[in-house]
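job 3f2a | input accepted
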Amino acid sequence: MPAERERERERERERERERERERERERERERDQERGRKRRREREVERERERERERERERERERERERAHGI
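job 3f2a | predicted structure (71 res):
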């Protein structure tokens, strides 16, 4: 009888270890998702900055054309 109780306790400990491993995998998935979202946000911010730089270059070219034509 004591051996059976010991085996049951060991099985319960193993189930608890498996639950903990699953929780850790879930936390890792969440961290990965957050890192992915952060990278996407950073890329979007960089694209917006580049678009703004391009708009500024276009405005500067327009000013140059106006000056060149004496407008």
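job 3f2a | Residues 23 and 70 are 70 Å apart (CA to CA).
job 3f2a | closed
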